[in-house]
């Protein structure tokens, strides 16, 4: 595995340029290339990010005579809904999307009393090959473009506004793909997610979480961007022997290197790092592993570490299962005994294969 492949998967089947792929200067250049006055760029940006409209034919402040031209040049259809399924009394909705090249991906919208969270994909499939994750077992199709990532956000924000009279408040890059393996496009998407209107969706950086299996150089690079988003490190084992198997990228960057990069992120940003740990019966749930995890986190991240235990979600063909509740409680107790914060994630969407590790984009 070369470093180039870790940071950027091969560019194949990428969609045509979309308005959302461009920054503010790019918007201006694009509209002037069409022979339109520069102020149209801000109008288009306000329509897309502010009013959540992606079809220029519906943009009433755009002259009717140029709407088709703008649509053809800057607003190609990127994603189409193949299927949307719900559970949790309609509070959880999983959407299967199909891109123009037939690549498929999924996003999950979860509504809670005080917030709404969208779990988005950064790649179609995933190349990290974690054996307990349905997405990882399916392999990588390709990176998503910045606009394909942002279209998931725009659609969910419109759903929250139009169907629930609410607002999309949180974004988690925990859907399909390894975000830091699509670094440049994910970075551009994050910048537009947190930018204030009319140049972005205006979601607080503190409400954006980016999950990674531990691409250490990219974690450090992200820290230096000073965006203030939350980093989630998918660790799943505190020892290299087991993590080499559960998270194959550990063969490149060991537990110590991943934790050192997470510490750098915490030091540079001042933000607490979430340590994701899928608890698997008789695999990584032993008491000694809880003790080792707590010890290593205490030594590296200290108070800036928070362990987020995830009861393993079932995936087709897997012989692994979630740990029994007594063992889960003991694992939590031992980590806390080491002075490290630890909670168990509220699992949503299991029955529609929308929970962590279950996204497979079949259909």
Automatic annotation (TrEMBL):
<keyword id="KW-0411">Iron-sulfur</keyword>
<dbReference type="GO" id="GO:0002935">
    <property type="term" value="F:tRNA (adenine(37)-C2)-methyltransferase activity"/>
</dbReference>
<dbReference type="InterPro" id="IPR027492">
    <property type="entry name" value="RNA_MTrfase_RlmN"/>
</dbReference>
<keyword id="KW-0808">Transferase</keyword>
<dbReference type="GO" id="GO:0070475">
    <property type="term" value="P:rRNA base methylation"/>
</dbReference>
<dbReference type="GO" id="GO:0005737">
    <property type="term" value="C:cytoplasm"/>
</dbReference>
<protein>
    <recommendedName>
        <fullName>Probable dual-specificity RNA methyltransferase RlmN</fullName>
        <ecNumber>2.1.1.192</ecNumber>
    </recommendedName>
</protein>
<keyword id="KW-0408">Iron</keyword>
<feature type="binding site">
    <location>
        <position position="126"/>
    </location>
    <ligand>
        <name>[4Fe-4S] cluster</name>
    </ligand>
</feature>
<comment type="function">
    <text>Specifically methylates position 2 of adenine 2503 in 23S rRNA and position 2 of adenine 37 in tRNAs.</text>
</comment>
<keyword id="KW-0963">Cytoplasm</keyword>
<dbReference type="InterPro" id="IPR040072">
    <property type="entry name" value="Methyltransferase_A"/>
</dbReference>
<feature type="binding site">
    <location>
        <position position="133"/>
    </location>
    <ligand>
        <name>[4Fe-4S] cluster</name>
    </ligand>
</feature>
<keyword id="KW-0489">Methyltransferase</keyword>
<feature type="active site" description="S-methylcysteine intermediate">
    <location>
        <position position="356"/>
    </location>
</feature>
<feature type="binding site">
    <location>
        <begin position="177"/>
        <end position="178"/>
    </location>
    <ligand>
        <name>S-adenosyl-L-methionine</name>
    </ligand>
</feature>
<keyword id="KW-0819">tRNA processing</keyword>
<feature type="domain" description="Radical SAM core">
    <location>
        <begin position="112"/>
        <end position="350"/>
    </location>
</feature>
<keyword id="KW-1015">Disulfide bond</keyword>
<feature type="binding site">
    <location>
        <begin position="234"/>
        <end position="236"/>
    </location>
    <ligand>
        <name>S-adenosyl-L-methionine</name>
    </ligand>
</feature>
<dbReference type="InterPro" id="IPR013785">
    <property type="entry name" value="Aldolase_TIM"/>
</dbReference>
<keyword id="KW-0698">rRNA processing</keyword>
<dbReference type="GO" id="GO:0000049">
    <property type="term" value="F:tRNA binding"/>
</dbReference>
<dbReference type="InterPro" id="IPR007197">
    <property type="entry name" value="rSAM"/>
</dbReference>
<dbReference type="GO" id="GO:0051539">
    <property type="term" value="F:4 iron, 4 sulfur cluster binding"/>
</dbReference>
<feature type="binding site">
    <location>
        <position position="211"/>
    </location>
    <ligand>
        <name>S-adenosyl-L-methionine</name>
    </ligand>
</feature>
<feature type="disulfide bond" description="(transient)">
    <location>
        <begin position="119"/>
        <end position="356"/>
    </location>
</feature>
<feature type="active site" description="Proton acceptor">
    <location>
        <position position="106"/>
    </location>
</feature>
<feature type="binding site">
    <location>
        <position position="130"/>
    </location>
    <ligand>
        <name>[4Fe-4S] cluster</name>
    </ligand>
</feature>
<dbReference type="Pfam" id="PF04055">
    <property type="entry name" value="Radical_SAM"/>
</dbReference>
<dbReference type="GO" id="GO:0019843">
    <property type="term" value="F:rRNA binding"/>
</dbReference>
<keyword id="KW-0479">Metal-binding</keyword>
<dbReference type="GO" id="GO:0046872">
    <property type="term" value="F:metal ion binding"/>
</dbReference>
<dbReference type="GO" id="GO:0030488">
    <property type="term" value="P:tRNA methylation"/>
</dbReference>
<keyword id="KW-0004">4Fe-4S</keyword>
<comment type="similarity">
    <text>Belongs to the radical SAM superfamily. RlmN family.</text>
</comment>
<dbReference type="InterPro" id="IPR004383">
    <property type="entry name" value="rRNA_lsu_MTrfase_RlmN/Cfr"/>
</dbReference>
<dbReference type="GO" id="GO:0070040">
    <property type="term" value="F:rRNA (adenine(2503)-C2-)-methyltransferase activity"/>
</dbReference>
<keyword id="KW-0949">S-adenosyl-L-methionine</keyword>
<feature type="binding site">
    <location>
        <position position="313"/>
    </location>
    <ligand>
        <name>S-adenosyl-L-methionine</name>
    </ligand>
</feature>
<dbReference type="InterPro" id="IPR006638">
    <property type="entry name" value="Elp3/MiaA/NifB-like_rSAM"/>
</dbReference>
<dbReference type="InterPro" id="IPR058240">
    <property type="entry name" value="rSAM_sf"/>
</dbReference>
